[in-house]
Amino acid sequence: MIELRSDTFTLPTEGMREAMFTAPIGDDVFGEDESVNALETYCANLFGMEAALFCSSGTQTNQIAIKMHTKPGDEVICHELSHIYLYEGGGIAFNSGASVRLLQGDYGRFTANQAKLAINKDDVHFPSSKLISIENTINRGGGACWEFSEIVGLSDLAKSHQLKFHLDGARIFNALVAKGESASSYGKVFDSISICLSKGLGAPVGSVLIGSGADIKAARRIRKVMGGGMRQAGFLAAAGSFALKNQVERLKIDHERARFISEVLLTQSWVKEVYPVETNIIIFKLIDAIKAEDFTMHLNENNIKASSIGNNAIRFVFHLGQNEQQINQLEEVIHKFRV
Ligand SMILES: Cc1ncc(COP(=O)(O)O)c(C=O)c1O
């Protein structure tokens, strides 16, 4: 079976299983799990930031960051396609009591000028603008990446208006590999960064929130209140450390495969549009004459799973759980589809 629905379906590799099995562990709520401490230190150093916190999921790291940077009545500025707004169960309102200012822009990006216009003036009528949040890579943007210069522009804007700047970096390593950028340059421009270990990096569970020492101390308290303190979490942290040390560079294979399949899709008469492919995700739209479900059924009949994401669009995600032979099989099955 070829799994294209998400890179969250990745399973631990042999080396990762071994690292998990032999991990030194302790009670992390007491700060005594060596493997968790090692992962947190590794992440903080990698991004050149002061501290890091291992959490259960990307939703949790994002939501903790939003809560840490805002209070009820504040406003978060983000893109209308952002995960923190669309797919975290209304968590911004539920956890932080904050409102949201949604921006539009190509494939999940927006400009510093758009963000500037969205910052409210200091007036009792308006929510207080407190946080700008962006995603890189952008899931609903088909894995699109930001230009680093645009990010620097947003960072400068946030600083000059005393706003915080958060990165939902669920797939930041895909962006770093695709653009040849360094994690430490990201650490210099954001107040907080959330990274996911359980997507293309292949760990079974976990995300890390990275920031200043004071912010991560506050984040640890919020995680506790949310019931997110984990005890012998080192088994999972060891998987994350293994992924960061061994499974980042190979992401370029996923990008090459996505690019290859996008070129195959572009030659099909029943494909209306393929979003530009920059990393491991392809989003493409079908012509009106066919329904997304007809195509996913054809894939299913050929042992391939993919998601339709609304608007007659399909999403394919490439990851370490696929091999070359499966990519060739996918190509054949695409060619076989008849309207
Ligand atoms: C961009 C983005 N941010 C955050 C998340 C949330 O991660 P998790 O599923 O670990 O909560 C996801 C999950 O797919 C995502 O794609």
What does this structure look like?
There is one protein chain. This protein is α/β, with parallel strands linked by helices. Helices cover 42% and strands 18% of the residues. The chain has helices at 14-21, 34-47, 58-69, 83-86, 91-96, 112-118, 148-160, 172-179, 183-189, 213-225, 234-246, 251-266, 292-301, 324-336; strands at residues 2-3, 51-55, 74-79, 99-103, 128-135, 164-169, 192-196, 207-211, 271-274, 281-286, 304-305, 307-308, 313-317. The strands form three sheets. The chain has a seven-stranded mixed sheet with strand order 2-8-7-6-5-3-4, with helices on both faces. The longest helix has 16 residues, at 251-266. The mean pLDDT is 98.
> Ligands in the structure?
pyridoxal-5'-phosphate
Write down the overall geometry. globular
Briefly note the structural class of the backbone.
alpha/beta
Largest sheet: 7 strands, mixed
Short characterization:
The chain has 339 residues and is α/β, with parallel strands linked by helices. It has helices spanning 14-21, 34-47, 58-69, 83-86, 91-96, 112-118, 148-160, 172-179, 183-189, 213-225, 234-246, 251-266, 292-301, 324-336; strands spanning 2-3, 51-55, 74-79, 99-103, 128-135, 164-169, 192-196, 207-211, 271-274, 281-286, 304-305, 307-308, 313-317.
List keywords for this structure.
339 residues, Aspartate Aminotransferase, domain 2, Aspartate Aminotransferase, domain 1, seven-stranded mixed beta sheet, four-stranded antiparallel beta sheet, 14 helices, binds pyridoxal-5'-phosphate
